[in-house]
Each structure stands twice: as structure tokens, then as C-alpha cells.
Amino acid sequence: MFPAGKRPSVQGVSVLRRYERELLEVLGKGRSALHILQRGGGAATADESLRAAQMALQVANDILAQMELEVRTCEGDEDERAAADTLMDTCRQLVARYRRELGTTRSTALRAQLLGNGHGASSAVPLLNGEAAAAAAAADGEPGADAATVSRGQRRQMTDASTKLLKASRQLQDSKRVLTETEHLGADILMDLEAQGQTLEKSRDRLQGTDGRLQTGRGLISAMERTERARRLLYIGLIGVAILVLAVVLGRHFWPASKPAAVSAAPGTLQNHTKP
Hints:
The protein is mostly helical and 276 residues long. The chain has five helices and no strands.
């Protein structure tokens, strides 16, 4: 019942309801004209009633075509789709019933006209003009139905053309929306790239500052190492000097005491040797 990928929306169902009310109003006016035609009257009155009934059928077909177009171009869920489906079936049945009533009334009027003319009596039913005869023949299934068929074919073609235009317009809108979204996405990407560039510049500045501080720290460490080496050399020198002084002191303490003892023993020896 519905084209693939198309479903009526809530808004579409409300539009269909409005079309249904218009259709019922038009069909009511058409039935009023049919009642006037059935009661009979003057030729002008009957002809006017017939034209009004035919116009009501044409307007009803146009409304039905608009409803079908609305269904094709709307979207919705399964419940809304079922509601629109039921509504469309009801409207089609109403139009079909009115078409049958119109055809029956035309046929009755035509037969009454023929019977009245055959008996030589004046009839209140008007002579059917070419348009009315073609419509009556359409109701009876005669060749005159080609005009109505052509009209329906033209309406169908117009409906298909309108559907194609709506599809093309929707595709164009979708393309425009995609282009706009692409532009926005590109602008966002550019902004992100600019922010990342600024972040990289700040990181580079921080790295340069860190490198400078590392160089300063490396210089301080080198100076501390040199100071530590000098301090160690100083300690080693002091220890060496202390050892040297200690050795000198010890040497002077022990070495000079043994040498005078040897000198004092020598004179005694000489004295012993000089005695008789």
C-alpha cells in the first residue's frame, strides 16, 4: 500500500484526516445534487445538478490523489502506517460508492429521457450533453469511459511527477544538509588543529625551559664534582702532611737518643786502656 521506505507520520495522519473531512463535504454536496436530479424538475435545474455532481466527483478524485501523494511523501511508525492505510481504504470506498451512485443516476436519467421521447411526452430530465453522455457511458462501461481513463492517467502522471519532484527536492535538501555538516565538521577540525598547534607550541616552550634548567643543573653538578675532587685532594694532602710530620717527630724522638750513648762509652774505654 505504501512505497518502500515511506511511512506516514503523525503530521501526515492529521493531514489525511483534514482531507477526509473535505472529501466527505464534497461527496455530501454531490449527493445533494444527485437527489435533486432524481426528483426531476426543469431542464436547466437537472443539467445544473448533473454538472454539480460531476464536479463533485472530479474534486473527490483530486482530493484522493492528494491523499495518496501525502502518504507517499511522509514517514512514521507501524501504528501510524496502519491508521493511514485504513483511512485511505475508507476514502477510496467512499469515492467508489459515489461514482457508482452517479453512474446509476445518469443511467436512470438517460433511460427516462429516451422513454419520454419515445412516447412523445415532454420530459423534465435534460438532454445529456457530450460530457454527461461520456460520463454516463463510463458508468455503464461503454467506450465513452476513455475520457475518464485518460483523466485518471493524467492525474496519475501528475502525481508521479510530483512524487519525483519531491524526492529530488528531498535529495537536494539532504545533500545541502550533508554539505553544511561537512563544512561545520571541517571548521571544527580546523579549530582542533589550531588548538593542538598552540598546545604543541606551549609544550615546545616548556621543553626549552626544561632543557635550560637541565643545562644549569648540569653545570652546577659539574662545579660540585670539581669542588668535591678539590676537597678530596686537600684531604689527601693534609693526611700526607700529617703523616710526614708524624714520621719526622717520631724519627727525631728515637734516632737522636741512641747516638749520644755511643759517644759517652768511648772515653771510658780509652781511660781503661790508659791505666797501667
